[in-house]
Write a structure and sequence with these properties.
Length: about 325
């Protein structure tokens, strides 16, 4: 019996071993398949991520190129802006408001100096005398007796003395009609006392197109009309009101480049102690104008009223 059982076992053993290994193989195969599927899924996910990453990279690079385009546009704009100086803006804006027809060259050029007298007034007068030309000085009030002498020197040397307010403080002058009148009285009295006559020409601080006055400028123009005072603005700016001070070359360029835009050109300079480059530029400006055969003239009754103010201001 035992032998019989042993025989059976010997015969069944390989079968069993075969069966067990078959089952194990199947289990192994199934689990391998599962792992394969997992790997495939993972690969797919990775490929998705890669695709997303690629599209992200693409997006980032397109944003990058947009930024590049923007920054080059900004650079171009800032280049343009650096070429535009305040003088040019003033000339562009204010030139349009002056109704003087364009000719090849102006008949006359008026050199006008605002905000003096100053430490430079004497130097300016010396230069004008050297070139035998007359200027127009739109002066403000001063308590300094030495500077007050300049009012007289301007008149004595044949230049035109004009008023530009006493205080030059916008908030005071343009606060009310009465305040404007009081300031006008003060500068009229001072100049009358020092020179013996009251000027009949005025320039509004900031010009007649200034945007600081609380009241319409027509209110103040009425006051001047009542007193037979003529006001003038300008149509060419030397640009010397800017801070920091413009170099001499730029003042020369500003003063000369737009002269042929107007039948009569009125150049705005500033007579302030810190405007030394204006004094330095003046001889070359006068020489260039004289070389062109244009007359440098004092303002008189025949001068075109160069004004910024219109009824639509
Ligand atoms: Zn001024």
């Amino acid at each position: 019996m035992r032998v019989h059982r042993l025989k059976r076992l010997i015969l069944l053993g390989p079968y069993m071993a075969f069966l067990i290994s078959l089952v194990l193989c199947i289990i192994l195969f199934v689990s391998l398949r599962k792992e394969d599927q997992k790997i495939e899924a993972l690969e797919e996910e990775i490929s998705h991520v890669t695709v997303n990453q690629n599209s992200l990279i693409e997006k980032v690079s397109s944003v990058d190129s947009s930024i590049d385009e923007l920054s080059s546009a900004v650079k171009a704009i800032s280049n343009e802006l650096s070429l535009v100086d305040i003088g040019a803006i003033e000339r562009a804006g204010e030139g349009n408001k002056v109704a003087t027809p364009r000719t090849a060259w102006p008949r006359k050029v008026y050199l006008t100096f605002d905000d003096g007298p100053s430490a430079n007034t004497g130097k300016i007068l010396d230069i004008l005398a050297q070139y035998k030309v007359k200027g127009n000085f739109f002066v403000v009030g001063t308590e300094d007796p030495e500077l007050q002498k300049m009012y007289k020197r301007i008149v004595d040397e044949g230049h035109v003395l004009c008023m530009h307010s006493y205080s030059h403080r916008y908030n005071e002058i343009y606060a009310s009609v009465d305040a404007f009148k009081a300031d006008l009285d003060k500068i009229s009295a001072l100049l009358g006392k020092v020179t013996g006559s009251v000027p009949s020409i005025y320039r509004f601080p900031g010009g007649s197109s200034n945007s600081v006055s609380r009241l319409p400028m027509s209110e103040f123009i009425k006051v001047l009309d009542e007193r037979n005072i003529t006001y003038y603005d300008w149509n060419v700016v030397a640009g010397d009101a800017t801070n920091p001070m413009l170099p001499k070359e730029k003042i020369i360029e500003n003063s000369l480049c737009d002269l042929n835009e107007y039948e009569e050109a009125m150049i705005l300079f500033h007579d302030l102690s810190n405007k030394t480059s204006t004094v330095e530029a003046l001889p070359e400006i006068i020489e260039a104008i004289q070389k062109s055969g244009i007359t440098i003239a004092p303002i008189d009754d025949t001068t075109i009223t160069i004004r910024h103010y219109t009824n639509t201001n």
